[in-house]
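Let's sit down with a protein and look at its sequence and fold side by side. Go ahead whenever you are ready, and we will take it from there.
>
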Amino acid sequence: MKVGIMQPYLFPYIGYFQLINCSDLFVIYDDVQYINRGWINRNRLLNKDQPFLFTMSLKKDSSTLNINERKFSEEFDNESKKLLKSLEYFYSKAPYFKDTMNLITDIFQFNTQNISEFISNHISKICKHLDIKTPLLLSSEINRDPSLKGEDAIIDIVSLLKGDHYINPIGGTNLYSKNQFDINGIQLSFLKTNGIRYPQFNNDEFVSNLSIIDVLMFNSKSEISELLLKYELFK
């Protein structure tokens, strides 16, 4: 069984959904320490052919708390409304604007400020929208050894889930030892996204690695299904 594991990212890029789609079981890694300046509470959209970074602010709290213990700030509702207005301003002329706005608006109806709950819910809704059937599981729901860190924690999770193949994004190549996975009877692979390009407003230029929202605005479900398969697995 192929297992993918990633921290909860806010409206993540298409590579995140490629990893979910190619896994037999996907774990949202939410019981690890929150780290600033990642993609857990921010992402990028397209504004006049340029990347635009949006951020959902967090409630001030201890930096030692895990992701599933952190919450968005009291400004969450206002920031959500502001983001929806930005989407309308940026993408009103995109071919799949209406369907995407309906989806994102529905996502923001979910009444929680808990980061893990909000993100896991919207990842589930987007997967359903794209007909990705991979089961999702929170790492905080797994009875695992909390003392294990890094590579050892990943191996522990995959083993507990009876997985025999762990897939990680290509950016994590230097984080893991193939030998350690082999010792534990787990195949290690890395997913590299290939050639993702689609028409945006300016067909002469393409701004890559934006939020899945951008992909949804410019592509039909069938076109996104094809994009989800544009990757390679490396050992």
User: Anything to note?
Assistant: The first helix runs from residue 14 to 22. The CA atoms of residues 34 and 63 lie 7 Å apart. Residues 2-234 form one domain.
